Structure to design on (338 residues):
């Protein structure tokens, strides 16, 4: 397999010959080097994050000799990167290959990467599964940085708060990051400390539904159908100039259900109501099976039903290191003027 893979790596690297110098010039050292689903090896992704080369397999493991060939190829073209390999071909994309000694230490090491002049924390492995920054969202973070100066931003399902940190760096007036996970908020705070930010972002550990209902003025009851809800922070009603909505494919809590295939409206409507009149709502849907135009129609109908029709919309496409064979990338990002 190594004999057949190396030419594919070379072709992908050559295809980025114009992109990489451009990214480096804007202080970006994190990008996808090989997008296997389109570039000839489905299930294999190879990403650079600063001085980290992250190799991940989602369909089947790489043979040792193939992994060695991958390491040799990039050592010649991007010397000095530390390779970490994650076999994620197991159930639920869990990392299945154990690392020992120096390899484990290198994988767990906290490193720094940069994107458009913003510094983020990254590690090849940590207590979770996914990298601390999703590279296909770079185009969306870029647009947020263009939109954010002087505006308030609400970052929902913030994960490690990359969008919020980018907005603060770009000169947002006020930034709120909402996520339910302590571990994600902790990395978000570390990201804030790594940067010289003109505004201190706020970090709210809260279920997104409870936060949105309070910001939208709907309110979150402490008791629902006779059942006492888990504790949640009390938040004052307010709307935001710019709202970023990046929900997971599926998540369920006592506060609500996120289901991007069957019921995007359940998370879209409260996010819309958190958006100021005349403001901007940026939404994502990362489910490949959901067709772009069908999803947009759902958003338009939901917005009209809520009395907040979409005045303008624009697709934000992933950048050139995430090629698409049909112009319909799995990650769909819609910018909506409402």
């Amino acid at each position: 397999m190594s004999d057949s893979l190396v030419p594919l790596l070379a072709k992908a690297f050559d295809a980025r010959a114009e992109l990489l110098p451009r990214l480096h010039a804007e202080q970006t050292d994190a990008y996808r080097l090989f997008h296997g689903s389109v570039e000839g090896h489905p299930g294999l992704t190879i990403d650079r994050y600063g001085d980290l080369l992250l190799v991940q397999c989602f369909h089947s493991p790489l043979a040792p000799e193939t992994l060695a060939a991958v390491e040799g190829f990039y050592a010649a073209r991007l010397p000095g990167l530390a390779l970490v390999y994650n076999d994620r071909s197991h159930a639920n994309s869990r990392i299945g290959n154990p690392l020992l000694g120096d390899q484990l230490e290198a994988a767990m090491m906290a490193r720094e990467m940069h994107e458009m002049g913003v510094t983020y924390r990254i590690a090849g492995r940590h207590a979770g599964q996914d990298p601390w920054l999703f590279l296909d969202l770079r185009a969306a973070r870029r647009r947020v940085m263009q939109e954010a100066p002087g505006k308030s931003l609400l970052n929902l399902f913030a994960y490690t708060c990359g969008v919020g940190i980018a907005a603060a760096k770009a000169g947002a007036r006020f930034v709120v990051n909402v996520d339910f996970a302590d571990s994600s908020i902790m990395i978000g705070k570390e990201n804030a400390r790594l940067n010289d930010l003109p505004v201190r972002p706020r970090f709210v550990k809260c279920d997104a539904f409870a936060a949105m209902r309070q910001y939208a003025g709907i309110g979150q009851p402490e008791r629902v159908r006779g059942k006492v809800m888990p504790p949640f922070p009390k938040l004052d009603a307010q709307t935001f100039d710019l709202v970023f909505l990046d929900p997971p494919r599926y998540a369920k809590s006592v506060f609500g259900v996120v289901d991007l295939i069957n019921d995007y409206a359940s998370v879209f409507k409260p996010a819309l109501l958190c958006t100021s009149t005349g403001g901007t709502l940026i939404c994502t849907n990362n489910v490949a099976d959901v067709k772009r135009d069908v999803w947009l129609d759902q958003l338009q109908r939901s917005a009209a039903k809520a009395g907040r029709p979409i005045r303008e919309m624009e697709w934000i496409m992933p950048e050139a290191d995430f090629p698409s064979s049909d112009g319909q990338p799995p990650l769909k990002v819609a910018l909506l003027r409402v």
